[in-house]
Structure formats: C-alpha cells, structure tokens
Amino acid sequence: MVATPIGNRGDISARAVSVLQSVDLIAAEDTRHSARLMSHFQITTPLVAYHDHGHEAQGERIFAALDEGQDVALISDAGTPLVSDPGFRLVRSARERAYKVIPLPGACAAITALSAAGLPSDRFCFEGFLPAKQSQRRKTLDLLVKETRTMIFYEAPHRIIAAVEDLLEVFGAEREATLARELTKTYETVLNGNLSELLAQIKNDINQQKGEMVVVVRGFDGEVQSAQEHEEERVLKLLLADLPVKQAASLAAKICGGQRNSLYKKALDLKQTEK
Ligand code: SAM
Q: Residues lining ligand 1, judged by CB closer than 6 Å?
C-alpha cells in the first residue's frame, strides 16, 4: 500500500519511489492519471486498473500475479490508498489469502489539514465525504452534534457552500472550523474562524469555492448527555407541546423510567429556554 503525493510531487517518499520501481505490477485507481506520476519519477513498472467495485475481475488479475510470486503495489490517484479511495476489499482479500500487506506511509489530505488547523488534535475522527443530498447530509450531521472529537470532512468544491451552511445550521454559528484548500499546491489556503465567519469568507471569495478541500470542525465542548438523558429530553419536549409541566414530567417519568422530580426540574428548564 503506497501513499503518493496529494499535489506536490516532492512529497513522495524515497522509499515509495524505490518500491514502485522494484515491484512487478502497480495497481492504480486511474492508470492514465498515475502514468504521469510514474513517468515523472522514471518508473517503468506496468500499471493495471483497480477499483473496489471491480474487485472480482480486477482482483483476480492481481492475485494471479501474487500467486506467481510477484510483488504488487497499490496506489490511488492521490494520498493514502483506502482513505476515501479504493483498496479496502483488496487488502481484506490479501489478508484472507495470507499475503503480506506492507503499508508505506505518506501524504493524506485529512492529516495534512489537521496539522495546520489549530484545532484540538489529541482526539479526532475522519468522516470522509458528507452525503451529496441535503436531507442525508443533515441526518449525518445531526448524529454528530454531540461529537466531542475534532471532525474531519472531505468536500467537493461545488458543494462547499451548501455543506458549510448545513454545518452552521446543525453545529451553530460559533463553532470553530478550518477550510484547508489545495494543500501542498500553488494556491494552497487555510482559512480559520467560526462557521459563520468561514461561510462569509467562502461566499465572498470565488477562489474558496474551487479546488480540493478539507473541512475540519472543532468537537462539541458542552455537556454530553447520556442516551437516557437524551431520550428524557426528547419525550419531555413532545409532551410539553400539549401538556402542563407537572403532567408532562409525570408522564415522561413513566415512559422513560426516570425520576419524577428531576424530570420536573428539566421540564421547567426546557420551558424557560423556550421563552
Ligand atoms: N486518499 C486521499 C488522501 O489520502 O487524502 C483522499 C482521496 S479522496 C478521493 C479526494 C479528496 O481528498 C478531495 O475531494 C479532497 O476533499 C481531499 N483532498 C485530496 N487532495 C487534497 C489537497 N491537495 N488539498 C485539500 N484536499 C485534498
């Protein structure tokens, strides 16, 4: 598994060049795209196409080579294979067939963006691409609303405004975030701010709507509710829409199995924040 640059060719490792030169076959996501990188480094190893969705047929060609004792490298169009890129099924099958899988580390847009974001990096999660459809995207973000780790998203340029609008809607305007664009390339920019500032900067500058981009969002730093507390709040909100506080609290206690007194207090708080 060989990582390749995410833009700047100087980021390829010496080991990656040497391995790509010495293997018998290179499996690549897009052979025409990778041929340019190979020619730059004077690597003449034959290239063969590989996608996870074509795994059955393309995988067989790769395993035929491995079965003959050949060495095969997997690369993707950019960065680390398997990170929002093909390779998962191939690695799994290779392991099942007891082939040795050797990772060669290198560029990865998610980690590169994180390293420049200035957001907490001791704990983070990679969310890949958000769904393209708004309803699905909102559902995905709703599930992340109390995520305390820094979150990393890949995004397509034509969806960046819609995606940041949804991030703002779900996480709130004050949540800190970073937009890292065109990393390691000529027009690299890294914008910081809260989501509302970030959205304004993207809308005001057409260049921020172009190229390859990563969005990094600070995790939730408020109080995290347990599943029980979350359910109690959900039920209370529904009941409070039609019932007085005391009755809503008493019914919620029966439905959720919680303490009537604490639910009464919570119902009062909810009524108060409604005002
Ligand atoms: N395997 C790659 C990696 O290790 O980062 C990611 C491949 S994924 C198909 C492509 C996405 O990665 C882009 O749409 C963008 O979100 C992000 N990306 C790749 N190169 C980038 C760069 N130079 N600057 C910012 N984001 C980049």
A: 6-7, 76, 78-80, 83-85, 108-110, 154-156, 180-185, 212-214
